[in-house]
Amino acid sequence: MHNMCIRPTPEELEDFGTPDFTIYNAGMFPCNRYTHYMTSSTSIDLNLSRREMVILGTQYAGEMKKGLFSVMHYLMPKRQILSLHSGCNMGRDGDVALFFGLSGTGKTTLSTDHNRLLIGDDEHCWSENGVSNIEGGCYAKCIDLSRVKEPDIWNAIKFGTVLENVVFDEHTREVDYTDKSVTENTRAAYPIEYIPNAKIPCVGPHPKNVILLACDAFGVLPPVSKLNLAQTMYHFISGYTALVAGTEEGIKEPQATFSACFGAAFIMLHPTKYAAMLAEKMQKHGATGWLVNTGWSGGSYGVGNRIKLPYTRKIIDAIHSGSLLNATYTTTEVFGLEIPTAIEGVPSEILDPANTWSDKVAHKETLLKLAGLFKKNFEVFASYKIGKDNKLTEEILAAGPNF
């Protein structure tokens, strides 16, 4: 947590006083499973009035970081500050981009960019003054980590970095990043200044681009779509990605996952509260919303191929530079997404998923199947209030799939 929190200076520590919040972490000491509503021997309990958190039955240190993030999701909106589960970086000209995305969508990979300054990889606040990182460090996944694919993260693992759940040689202390025997969720916690192009202090002006990442294993979402405000809210509240299911008798079926505001586990208020605040800030500061699919193209998982990372990077570069705003757009059927007809360095034929599927009937069926999953997931939000007019605006409901 010394690595993950913002570290006070020696002068600040001198008259630090009483901590605002206390964490009691009992490691593997289990909670009482016979307590009413308890479903396992692990529990993370927050008491907001006593400002305490008790962690029982887990040695996963991420629970402390995410526990404090949950507290911020409660405190910040009360101060009219929006808390965000997102990565954030800034160009040399001061243009800021936010990256939302669930696990495996490329949030850390795409926000860590050699040509841009890293404000943070996971937790941010958007206030009247701009954006700021809540943390003072990064908590990077390091399964299959390699110097070639993730040079910045690789180089950040040095003295002072805490590695979690990794397997290493007792004699040489060399880490085997491919070993999943403890868990696939291996991590490295390092101070943000270990990233060479980190922006210190971790603050920036108001974002220009809000990028929603989805790893669509169904293979029907376009590699990039420009969203209007209502669509941005719809996809932000949905928080979609797809997990690739385990193999059962040789069948591989993608599984849709929805996590409201791309962080349902951590948000304390209703998702529409955060969505309304995001809409207001995007409108006020003229930010553009984008939906970027880092998943499959030309077919679902097992048939198509994953969109190449260099192509996704070219798409992100075009968003940062502003050139994608000036592209020519067409609209897709069902989801009604605006997609560009050409992007420099990206094959034009992959920009519209309909072109990449050889089986057009299967494409339409899969598209309608995913649209149905979106619609079903959104039903629970349809009756909630949002915005000043006290109802979830018709525009947001209309911004979903139409079929």
Summarize the topology.
Blueprint: H1 10-14, E1 22-25, E2 43-47, E3 52-56, H2 62-78, E4 82-90, E5 96-100, H3 107-111, E6 117-120, E7 123-127, E8 130-133, E9 137-141, H4 151-156, E10 162-164, E11 167-168, E12 175-176, E13 187-191, E14 203-204, E15 207-214, E16 224-227, H5 229-238, E17 240-244, E18 254-258, H6 271-285, E19 288-293, E20 296-297, E21 305-306, H7 309-321, E22 329-331, E23 338-340, H8 353-356, H9 360-378, H10 394-398
Parallel strand pairs: 1-3, 5-15, 15-19
Antiparallel strand pairs: 2-3, 4-5, 4-6, 4-7, 7-8, 8-14, 9-13, 10-13, 11-12, 16-19, 17-18, 20-21, 22-23
Helix pairs in contact: 5-6
Pfam families: PEPCK_ATP
Protein name: phosphoenolpyruvate carboxykinase (ATP)
GO cellular component, one term: cytosol
Describe the structure.
The chain is an alpha+beta fold and 403 residues long. 25% of the residues lie in helices and 24% in strands. It contains ten helices and 23 strands. The strands form seven sheets. Strands 4, 5, 6, 7, 8, 14, 15, 16 and 19 form a nine-stranded mixed β-sheet that branches. Strands 1-3-2 form a three-stranded mixed β-sheet, covered by helices on one side. A hairpin with a 6-residue loop joins strand 22 (329-331) and strand 23 (338-340). Helix 5 runs antiparallel to helix 6. It is globular. It starts with 9 loop residues before the first helix and ends in a 5-residue tail after the last helix.
What is the first-to-last residue Cα distance?
48 Å
Number of helices: 10
Rg over alpha carbons: 22 Å
- Low-pLDDT stretches are none
Shape: globular
Question: Strand share of the residues?
Answer: 15-25%
Which class best fits the helix and strand makeup? Answer: alpha+beta
Helix content: 10-25%
Largest sheet features? 9 strands, mixed
Number of strands: 23
Instruction: Provide mean pLDDT, rounded.
Output: 93
Catalytic activity: oxaloacetate + ATP = phosphoenolpyruvate + ADP + CO2
Keywords: ATP-binding, Decarboxylase, Gluconeogenesis, Lyase, Nucleotide-binding
Pathway: Carbohydrate biosynthesis; gluconeogenesis
GO cellular component, one term: cytosol
